[in-house]
Amino acid sequence: MCPPFERLRRQVENDIKTFERDPVTKQPSTERCVKCFARPAAGQPPPLPSDVRPPKVLVKTLDYLITNILSHLPSSHAFLWDRTRSIRQDFTFQNYNGDETVLCCERIARIHILSCHVMASIDDPDYSRQQELEQFTKTMQTLLDLYDEARTRNKLYRNEPEFRAYHLLSAINDAEADRTVQLLPPDVFYHPHVQTALKLRALAQQNNQTGRGSRNTAACLNAFAAFFRALEETEVPFLMTCLLETHFVDIRIGALRAMARAVHKKSRPYSVSHLARLLGFDDIDSAISFCETCGLNVI
To answer: Distance (Å, rounded) from C-alpha 14 to C-alpha 242?
Structure first.
């Protein structure tokens, strides 16, 4: 899973991670070392063929990471983030677009979604959700291009509807995603995953969201209560919910901005327990903390 030269170099540089050491002797293990991501520098020659893992080895490497490392989240997040990026890099070096590339990109995209959910409750100064979503977006772009290219050969991957749904939910404010999904074949467009994503996407969109690259859209619903109610009442797949979780803060801020027009200072105090149910908070304390962060007084 790791070229010999890199393994020896990192051993000399004392850059062998915990997950790459023997659990008993704590020494670097040939069977556990995984090739790390190397940012290509300007003018740098391409890697040697012996340093690029072939597709079958990349699949086995990802199998190893999922079987042995993924369960150690959140402590293994940085290791997973780097090593999965290296797997995609090796596919790029070979310009290989076969079934192994699709399989690995699908599984890596799921890892990024799961990591967003797990790391959301962890106070880790080294973790950046923006970087996590950036790598997820790049993985998804590769995957969608592979799906489109396969369709020109009359080939359909069975997991395409699942990842088309993820794309719709990750780009809630991107109108181009709506146009793209309408051009898909009926068996993809009318798949339950895609239809669920379209419903949740419509409910999550707002027309009072400004800044941070958002644009006001005339036909948006501001249906924040219906959005969180739909997450509770419908059977939304787990990873789809994890991806929507990345939008919760923006949706809740937009909801409070909309409610501020109706619930003014002269009104009776608004029940925080009702607000917690309305905006899908896990408990009242979470709702209070969020309101105080937004500058609202809680009695």
So the answer is: 36
| CA pair distance 38, 48, nearest whole angstrom | 13
pLDDT tens string 99-110: 999 999 999 999
Longest distance between any two alpha carbons in the chain, whole Å:
73
Q: What is the pLDDT of residues 171-191, one digit of tens each?
A: 887 878 888 888 999 999 999
Contact 197, 271 (CB under 8 A): no
Which residues, in sequence order, are CB contacts of 32 under 8 Å at separation 6+? Answer: 19, 20, 21, 22
Whether residue 133 contacts residue 92, with contact meaning beta carbons closer than 8 Å, is answered with: no
Nearest-Å Rg of the Cα atoms of the chain is 22
Q: Which CATH class is domain 1-39+49-117+129-134?
A: mainly alpha
Residue 283 Cα to chain centre, angstroms: 25
Residue with tokens 């309408």: 182
CA distances from 189 to 15, 148, 179, 183, 193 (A): 47, 14, 12, 8, 9
Is the pTM value of this prediction over 0.70? Answer: yes
Nearest by Cα to 258 from 219, 209, 202: 209
Compute the distance between CA of residue 83 and CA of residue 87 in angstroms, rounded to an integer. 6
Please state, in angstroms and rounded to a whole number, the distance separating the CA atoms of residues 116 and 95: 29
